[in-house]
Write a structure and sequence with these properties.
The protein is an alpha/beta fold. About 45% of the residues lie in helices and about 10% in strands. The protein has a five-stranded mixed sheet, covered by helices on one side. It is found in: Nucleus.
Length: about 375
């Protein structure tokens, strides 16, 4: 029996015609304009959400992982185009059809490039740009290693188990949980269904084993204070996770009020970091249609690219920062003022209270000096 390919080749030879591989011609005028350096620095920022120097830096770090070789059938998309395409897609949050028209690459290739580049960003940049802090500092609160905060990211309803991703507002979403350091960088990133809670996270399990971060503990008035995260009022109170005092508790002592004031300032810095993240990568502002299995990688890549921009000093213009109507910069409902009760490990809660009290007393003593 003759195969289909052999039959086609025979028919082609019989007709006296040379068989050629067909491919659709696509325009890459947009990228040709960029490559010709016709873009100003401002145009670079508007299109790729970072400056040309940072683009070159990223391309140098990622080239070995994202570059592909030419084949006998077609030329590979250059590494520069792959990176630019990914940044444009994350920053513009447009349909794949628009990316195809801008860069002259088919939609199926756009999907593959986006996945490849985001995976390379996470694999290569995580050790240098998202590692736990070696020392707790930079905030006004002593021993504070970071602020734990969350961002709701709307998604398309998944084909399976859609109810688990319902956010109670008529939408489907995932929760992006991050730990923010004093520079506004994210050193722990985790994605989970809404309402899954802190105790279901990998961060909670690591911290409970005493491996939150390598920063050493410090003694305050005979009490050992480990590096800790600052949580919200409805987070559990643990030795590695402190939260502000309730309104009635804070009114009794000046040190507690000072602790709350410094905690509020730290949370404002974390909220500003989330605002820059969402403003720079607009794929976080709209409903994300990315496949749910790939979405955690895409969100982690956005956080790492944000960290690179923070470290390198790429500005985030104020016009990028406007949050969607009715939402805070953290993408959540505003917190209640009163402290909520929850079931916690008694030993951990008592130890956390001692740590918080000694910090408040230390801050009161500093204020009196």
């Amino acid at each position: 029996m003759m195969s289909l390919s052999a039959s086609s080749a025979s028919a082609s030879s019989a007709c006296g015609r040379e068989r050629r591989l067909w491919s659709k011609a696509r325009s890459s005028a947009f990228w040709e304009t960029v490559r010709a350096k016709a873009f100003s620095r401002g145009e670079w920022a508007e299109n790729f959400r970072l400056g040309p120097a940072t683009f070159d830096f990223l391309c140098g770090r990622l080239r070995a992982a994202i570059q592909r070789r030419d084949t006998t059938m077609r030329r590979a998309v250059p590494a520069e185009v792959r990176l630019a395409l990914t940044l444009w897609r994350l920053g513009a949050c447009t349909e794949y059809r628009a990316v195809e028209q801008q860069f002259g690459v088919s939609r199926s290739t756009v999907c593959k490039i986006l996945r490849d580049v985001c995976e390379a960003v996470v694999a290569i940049l995580t050790p240098a740009y998202a590692s736990p802090p070696a020392s707790a500092g930079g905030f006004s609160l002593p021993q504070l290693a970071g602020v734990l905060t969350r961002l709701r990211v709307p998604i398309r309803a998944p084909p399976e188990d859609a109810a688990s991703y319902s956010d109670g507002r008529g939408w489907h979403a995932v929760t992006l949980q991050v730990a923010v350091d004093s520079r506004g960088c994210f050193w722990d990133v985790e994605v989970s269904p809404p309402g899954s809670g802190l105790r279901a996270s990998a961060l909670y399990r690591r911290a409970q084993r005493g491996v939150l971060c390598p920063a050493p503990p410090v003694q305050f008035s005979g009490v050992t204070v480990p590096p800790y995260l600052l949580g919200r009022r409805d987070d559990p109170l643990l030795p590695w996770l402190l939260r502000p005092y309730g309104s009635s508790e804070a009114s009794r002592r000046r040190g507690r009020r000072r602790f709350n004031a410094m905690a509020a300032a730290a949370r404002e810095r974390a909220a500003a970091a989330l605002g820059r993240l969402r403003g720079r990568w607009r794929c976080l502002q709209k409903r994300n249609d990315t496949d749910l299995t790939f979405l955690p990688t895409l969100l982690a890549a956005c956080c790492l690219l944000h960290n690179v921009c923070q470290v390198r000093g790429d500005p985030c213009p104020p016009r990028w920062l406007a949050p969607p109507p009715g939402e805070s910069l953290e993408g959540e409902e505003e917190e209640e003022e009163e402290e909520e009760e929850e079931e916690e490990e008694e030993g951990g809660r008592e130890a956390a209270r001692r740590i918080r009290e000694v910090l408040a007393a230390t801050l009161q003593g500093r204020a009196a000096e």
